[in-house]
Amino acid sequence: MNRRPRNHAGREQFALMRICCLTIIIGVIIWMCFHPQPCDAAYISKSYNLCDWPAYTVTVTSIGDYYVTGYVPGDIAQCGRADGITASGVPATAGRTVAMKGVPFGTRVYIGGGIGERIVEDRGVGRGVIDVACEDNAACYRITSYMEVWIIE
User: What is the DSSP track for 75-123?
Assistant: First the structure.
């Protein structure tokens, strides 16, 4: 009786494929913990740990609803100066800079309504108001409303 030799290559390839898939899944999970994306208000309570990874935790604390307005850096009519330099000494940058009264420079905030994370780099016009640096006047008008704001610690 002739017996054909067994082919173990299929089993080895399947085992290697399972190991590769598990490695990718674990890598994605670790990446997600080190690059957390803030959630909407429905998912964030007053103080919420975005990632339970012990080496890296981010806590956000709601500071309430603020009236969000926009300004175009370097526009004399809106800023009072044309150089676009903030009170902290750095250039105002759309997509990064906000002005808030009573909050220290360098504080990271998350603004709801699709605006996202920003850094306090300028003094604000009054309590309860956040000025967000925008690309143009149209963007300023689009974001003007009351929105919930969180401090990122």
Answer: -HHHHS-SS-B-TTSSBP-TTTEEEETTS-TT-EEEETTTTEEEEEEE-
Amino acid at 58: V
- The span from the CA of 85 to the CA of 99, in Å, is 12
Q: In CATH, what number does 47-152 get?
A: 2.40.40.10
User: What is the tens place of the pLDDT at every residue in 18-56?
Assistant: 777 677 777 777 766 665 555 544 444 444 444 544 555
| Contact (Cβ atoms closer than 8 angstroms) between residue 68 and residue 147 | yes
Q: Where do the domains of the chain lie? A: 47-152
H/E stretch holding 147: strand 145-152
Cβ–Cβ under 8 Å, residues 113 and 68: yes
First to last CA, the chain: 74
pTM of the entire predicted model: 0.60
For 56, phi then psi, to 5°, come to -150, 105
Q: Which residues of 33-71 are buried (b: 16+ CB within 10 A; e: fewer)?
A: beeeebeeeeebeeeeebeeeeeeebebebeeebebbbb
